[in-house]
Amino acid sequence: MPETQLKVTRIIRAPREKVFAAWTTPAQLVKWWGPGPVTCPEAEVDLRAGGAYRIANKEQDGSITWISGAYTEVDPPSKVTYEWNVSIVDGPPTLVSVWFNPHPEGTELVIQHARFTDDTVRDMHVQGWAGCLDKLEALFA
């Protein structure tokens, strides 16, 4: 099956240092992570190449889906790249790269999520990223 990927771009009205911190600091992640009604009761981050992270997605029914992996590149406040494993999705990890680019209105956030082997799983992530970024925008509103 061919590899698929997605790319999402959003302008966040905050300096990139603050957006980078919101993306990589557990105390900040729990404030905004999770699409729609999904919340983040717990986040662990070892922000260095080879360091691990783990983020809890708490669903409305109380169940938790874990997202975890290791960082492969950390370049504050410009970019992070990390493996992406979802506890409810079988298969090898995907790869997420996030760029925090300066922009006249704040930060241009560019997410490239690659190595999907299934279009359905990729499409699920398109919706998930959009929901998460809505909450990140609201954090800085």
Please explain how this structure is put together.
By secondary structure, the protein is an alpha+beta fold. It has helices at residues 16-24, 26-32, 119-139, and strands spanning 4-12, 43-45, 52-58, 64-75, 79-86, 94-103, 106-116. The chain has a 7-stranded antiparallel sheet with strand order 1-7-6-5-4-3-2. The mean pLDDT is 96.
Strand and helix map with partners:
Blueprint (H helix, E strand, L loop, with lengths): L3 E9 L3 H9 L1 H7 L10 E3 L6 E7 L5 E12 L3 E8 L7 E10 L2 E11 L2 H21 L2
Antiparallel strand pairs: 1-7, 2-3, 3-4, 4-5, 5-6, 6-7
Helix pairs in contact: 1-2
Global shape: globular
Radius of gyration: 14 Å
Helices, by number, come to 3
Cα-to-Cα separation, first versus last residue? 41 Å
**What is the count of β-strands?**
7
Q: How much of the polypeptide forms β-strand, as a percent range?
A: 35-45%
Task: Quickly list its features.
141 residues; alpha+beta; seven-stranded antiparallel sheet; 7 strands; 43% strand
At a glance:
The protein is of the alpha+beta class and 141 residues long. The protein has helices spanning 16-24, 26-32, 119-139, and strands at 4-12, 43-45, 52-58, 64-75, 79-86, 94-103, 106-116. It is globular, with a radius of gyration of 14 Å.
